[in-house]
């Protein structure tokens, strides 16, 4: 958490107990979160740090261990489990060191930190983007703490009052007696302060954010393209959602959408081209070009006979080194003239003569795919 306990408190190994105590007191008052409403997050961090350091250096045994072995010598037994507010409290005997300043240790300690709302955005990408591993540039709108008032909403922190309805906790408890001895307690967000625990003096609202504490901003970020990105994928980037004062920023949620491609279909990292060719092309050879995802024009030459639904492969040319598959669809002529049949019979190999029996002659009819039972279609 912290680096060197001595440095944290601004003391040395030879400093006396009293000096260490004095140094801690001074820093603890300086960094108490209740005294640092405008930068509470940092103050909490600092406060924990100095308390952790003090817990070790004020304890003779722990200090000895720490001097000899560093943090490793503390055997995790330590300081971190100490409640920094208890330590602070016991030192000041429960009395507020801030004079009139309102210190409420219990609410401070138990208060649930608010989290900003998530922000959503869409990102469309092309197969070209994916193939070239192009960086993803995103723009989205989110609420950021107003820079003018640093998220106070008013011109000065003295115009911020604790909400009396919820006592500054942002939540209100309600106890309902359901029957003799049966009590139900519910906690719900405070409607007076909208869960902020604060009431702003409307006379001194910040002119930049108009008391909203936040301002809408368009943000742009660039991220690396995930290797296996696919349509419908979602990603979350923590902390890029709406900011809230004294709370944790929300998340940015991105949904990815893949644009349809006019040449390729995608199956995982493989690319598929469906080509429709004529019967003549399937028998005598076929060639075609296509523009690859990196703009290279690739020529394909097929000299061998191509059967209907034949699949050919080009290895290594898919995404991430996968393959391109070409599925050939062969279109047959609807009719053949007699002369053509005669020529074909001469040149094409014939099947062996079948013993044709004329006992029954039954004609067939072409059926559409829709007429076919699916079990029959599966056999095709
Ligand atoms: Zn309230
Ligand atoms: Zn403002």
Walk me through what this model shows:
The chain has 380 residues and is α+β, with helices and mostly antiparallel strands. It has 3 domains: 5-91, DnaJ domain (Helix Hairpins), CATH 1.10.287; 119-258, Heat shock protein DnaJ, cysteine-rich domain (Chaperone, DNAj Protein, Chain A, Ribbon); 265-353, Sandwich (HSP40/DNAj peptide-binding domain). Helix content is 23%, strand content 26%. It has a 4-stranded mixed β-sheet with strand order 10-11-15-14. Strands 1-9-8 form a 3-stranded mixed β-sheet. Strand 12 (286-291) and strand 13 form a beta hairpin. Helix 2 runs antiparallel to helix 3. It is elongated and about 115 Å long. The chain binds zinc ion (2 copies). The site of one zinc ion has 8 residues, from loops.
| Largest sheet strand order | 10-11-15-14
CATH class of the largest domain: Mainly Beta
N-to-C span: 67 Å
CATH topology of the largest domain: Chaperone, DNAj Protein, Chain A
Instruction: Name the structural class.
Output: alpha+beta
* CA-based gyration radius: 38 Å
- The H/E string reads HHHHHHEHEEEEEEEEEEHEEEEHH
What is the subunit arrangement here?
Answer: single chain
Main sheet properties? 4 strands, mixed
Report the portion of residues in β strands: 25-35%
Overall mean pLDDT = 84
* Uncertain spans: 76-82, 93-111
